[in-house]
């Protein structure tokens, strides 16, 4: 069979992701989160993906930021305008091309591995089918065929073709079973997701300043979420990697999926959209003020009452963080207790994603972060082991920053200064924080020269000055 040309692939993408796209409708539903969580565990069991997640991802330390960025990226990939889709596909490919390396056991991984990328799409498709089935609305044959075709087109948009996934749905299921039975492993990433992420997930932005409230709810919610996820996974997979079959977990899982399906069918559509739930968790998320706004406001009032009961803790939260705390909350993006290049690369990814940078600006940003990393190694890596410990950073924080960090700020200034007048006016400054940080500034009338902007950014990134606005992106 002849391979499709790029033009043909692009036309297929335009047609499949039209106004009646099943995939576009599916990913806009809040219950899609159940399928994505389940699929993430199956993805993490792939050796290549598991190693990449452990070595480079911020999904454990910054899951809400990762969720928000994923929502934004998916919306771009399914945008009605094919130019937006192809721009986002190119950005994702540049991002993945930078993720490769060797794990502590000497095994190589590469985020551009074609088999692994196809498996990600396969798990999302199969988890979507499972979500519909467990929600009490199984897809009929034609609908399932159509949804599978859309997922293959999604892969073609990323890879240039969809050859790594079987051509037909009938061929897909043997492929899927073979991957489950022979390719997946009990990786560290699977255990981290199920037993560390759910148990220690940090508070969403709405509750970030009220840790006691979040911790109390997480004690129950964490184990329940893990039990629901495990019970929804294929039984053969659970047996292979020795996941526990907890009493009552399957009943709980079925109840969760049926409830989600019932809510999706009965409640108004705008109540069950992913954007509505994101704005509920994060007041700064675009699309705030939706149907859940009243619920969010009541939650904020309740949290304010708790703050009044613990003023000392609230005041401590406002204080400028120590170098040690800044290291843990901002610099250690991957949460492994050390500062390495993947931590700084994660910061660059977060900024490039939010600002939707084109390739030249993205390259400048990564190069600036790479220069800062080289300086940090030269100045702080006392034992020469290729990483900076929290102690090494805290001991020498006063000597920072260097020219590398200033280069990062310079890149941000150039991106923000859209009229190229060497001043960031109030509108440009607000636009930066609205796009990159999803936040409206109280000091929105301010304008900044290059030196003033650089000074503010550098003060935050060196741990010298607290900034609620920058916190929303990087911590």
Q: Can you describe this structure?
A:
This protein has 475 residues and is mainly alpha-helical. The protein is built from 24 helices and six strands. It has a two-stranded antiparallel ribbon with strand order 1-2. The longest helix is centred in the middle third of the chain and has 22 residues, at 211-232. The radius of gyration is 23 Å and the shape is globular.
The SSE string, one letter per element, is HHHHHHEEHHHHHHHHHHHEHHEHHEHEHH
Task: Give the tally of β-strands.
Answer: 6
Number of helices: 24
This entry's quaternary arrangement is single chain
Instruction: Please describe the biggest sheet, giving its number of strands, its sense, and whether it closes into a barrel.
Output: 2 strands, antiparallel
Are there runs of 5+ residues with pLDDT below 50, and where? 1-14, 305-321
Provide the residue-averaged pLDDT: 79
Estimated structural class = mainly alpha
End-to-end span in angstroms?
A: 50 Å
Q: What best-fitting shape do the alpha-carbon axes yield?
A: globular
Strand order within the widest beta sheet: 1-2
Strand content: under 5%
Summarize this structure briefly.
The protein is mostly helical. It has helices at 6-16, 22-27, 32-44, 47-56, 63-77, 82-97, 114-134, 141-159, 169-183, 188-200, 211-232, 235-240, 249-266, 274-281, 293-309, 311-318, 323-331, 341-355, 359-380, 390-396, 403-416, 426-436, 450-461, 468-474; strands at 100-102, 108-110, 338-339, 388-389, 423-424, 448-449.
